[in-house]
Amino acid sequence: MGRSIKKEEEKIEKETQKIERKYLPELVYGGMDGSITTFAVVSGVIGASLTPIVVLALGFANLVADGFSMAVAHYFAIKSRNELIKKQDKHPMKGATATFISFLLIGLLPLLSFIVAAITKNPVIIENQFKYSIVLTGIALITIGWFEGEVTGKHKIKSTFQTLIIGGIAAFLAFSVGRIISILIS
């Protein structure tokens, strides 16, 4: 009797892990893209020496439009794959929803310091909002990189470092383009 209970508990635990991991790739992908693209927008605006209100306007526009675009693309990719292989591994709407929510929530982190600065009018936060955005985005990328390593089975520290580097390069490129455009127009 004890073995049967133990086997049942092991079965339940495996099923729980399977369900938890089923949408983990979508959460990692949405979060990674959300934090990188939103911070790239922030960096580009700062590089162009534009105002914090422009950071917020473009940042939120990016969150909603890009997050929606990713969710729709994910939905149709899964739906097409399911139709192609005649098998329903994943429910396309659930995967799209996971991608969109992850994109929005994690993509919001680069904007958080700008939101707090706009609401509180705190001069210290206002003066350092881009620095705080860098730190918050770094934390997001480190976390996402760690989970990406979990999903892919890669070494977690290597995956974390790669994600942080990719996000840093994207931010540097966006900042540089914003700075160059600003110089050319001035």
Give the tags:
186 residues
Produce the secondary structure layout.
Elements: H1 2-22, H2 24-47, H3 52-85, H4 92-107, H5 109-120, H6 123-152, H7 156-185
In short:
This protein has 186 residues and is an all-alpha fold. The chain is built from seven helices and no strands.
Please describe what this structure looks like.
- The protein has 186 residues and is mainly alpha-helical.
- The chain has one domain (23-177).
- 90% of the residues lie in helices and 0% in strands.
- It is built from seven helices and no strands.
- The model has no long low-confidence stretch (mean pLDDT 89).
What separation lies between the terminal Cα atoms? 80 Å
Classify the oligomer: single chain
* Domain module tally: 1
Going by helix content, strand content and strand pairing, the class is mainly alpha
From N to C, what is the helix and strand string?
HHHHHHH
Q: What is the overall silhouette?
A: elongated
- Beta strands, count: 0
Q: Taking all residues together, what is the mean pLDDT? A: 89
Helical percentage? over 70%
| Fraction of residues in β-strands | under 5%
Count of runs of 4 or more consecutive helical residues: 7
Cα Rg: 20 Å
Low-pLDDT runs: none
Q: Largest beta sheet, briefly?
A: none
